[in-house]
Amino acid sequence: MDDKIIRQYMAHLKVDLLQSHYGKVLETWNENNEKLGYNKLYFIDKGEGLVTINHKKYMPRPGEILFIPEGSIQSLAIISPKRYVKHWCHFNGYIGTVPISQFLSFPLLKKVNDIPYVEDLFTKMSGYSNDQQAFSPIRANSLLLELLHYYFSDICKNEVNLARQVASTKINTLLTFMEQNLHRKLQTEDFAEVMNLNPNYLIRLFKTTFGTSPMNYFNRMRIEKAKELLKLDVDSISSISDKLGFNTPYYFSYVFKKHTGYSPKDYRRIT
């Protein structure tokens, strides 16, 4: 798993919990080849059933969690009198305008090791999702993010990768180029040359995913690297500025404070 690249994408993940509940599926729980406009998570408590995702059949059992991605073709079916009792939620998850399931490749059905923890997350999430207080959606979405973090980092540990179509995109090539060239004095024109795109078009394309220009994003990456070097307390501030391609220590301090609220000297002192 390319952690550095995935981390850059995940920093821009936006989620919206649509609904979350717990209960027994109805006798009419039956759908055939429906294309989903959102994601689903099913955490099975009891019972049996059949879920088909893009023509592949899954029969989740108690203690297992199923991720049904946005855009997939799903079918649902009851296969015995023991209908599913499950926690479930529907949600949108996007990086820019692209669904999370198009960015990542990961298993859709997994056994949950810490059942009480996941049960508690779903129970709280359902509670806040159905609470009419003004700020409940904030808490509901934060619980959804916690659940997704657990799903990708623990339940699917070492099984998450960039989707093939993302790994080969020009944006991904540019992120790798940025990561490998933090020491260089680069400008938007340099990034456009790597992408073989017009600089103005590149800026629009990049903003669609990351909400900022390539140059601002590159500066953020350099500041994150500067934080690491400042914590080590080995290099001087002037040396760090030079290593990260800033024209002068003064400009480095200006950009660092703009992003963190601290001067490099103060940041080193408090960390």
UniProtKB/TrEMBL annotation:
Residues 172-270 form the HTH araC/xylS-type domain. Pfam families: AraC_binding, HTH_18. One of its GO terms (molecular function) is DNA-binding transcription factor activity. It comes from the Bacteria. Keywords: DNA-binding, Transcription, Transcription regulation. InterPro entries: AraC-bd (IPR003313), Homeodomain-like_sf (IPR009057), HTH-like (IPR037923), HTH_AraC (IPR018060), HTH_AraC-typ_CS (IPR018062), Tscrpt_reg_AraC-type_HTH (IPR020449). This is Helix-turn-helix transcriptional regulator.
